[in-house]
Amino acid sequence: MPKTNTNSRRAIFQAAALGLGGAAAAQAQGGAAWTPKKASANGPVRSGHLLFLSGIGGWYPERRKEAGDVKVQTRSALESMKAALEKAGSNMDNVLKVTVSLVEPENNWEGMNQVYDEFFTTKVKPARSYWGSTGFRRKGQLLQIDCIAYVD
Fold first, then answer.
1. Out of 3.30.1330.40, 3.30.70.2740, 3.10.20.740, 3.30.565.10, which CATH number does the structure's domain 39-150 have?
2. Separation between Cα atoms, residue 149 and residue 152, nearest integer Å
């Protein structure tokens, strides 16, 4: 077996500890406590180069009288997402991760996915996960979308 450099191994473990256990590891080495750097970006929360948007519903009665089908609601949610990202200095091409909460996914997946593909047109699409929901606070709302995006 090749001999490993214990100083290199120690440096790797210290770097991992700093990345995963930030505050405690930094304080143990005499450094300042790490705190997340968060700021509102007039909608999303920004931390460093990341934007976090959550709870974008597919239907708000004050914006549109009728709930509409899943295609209408997906388009509405993604247009809201796009506007919020652009206001914060990012765009749909910079979305890294999307989570979709979907009522009756067996009936609504295809329609949601069809509209989703209209908004995410790059070859490499964001990572996406979804989960089925029994419903939301507003009766008639079929989906809710969250995302994480990159901003310079």
1. 3.30.1330.40
2. 10
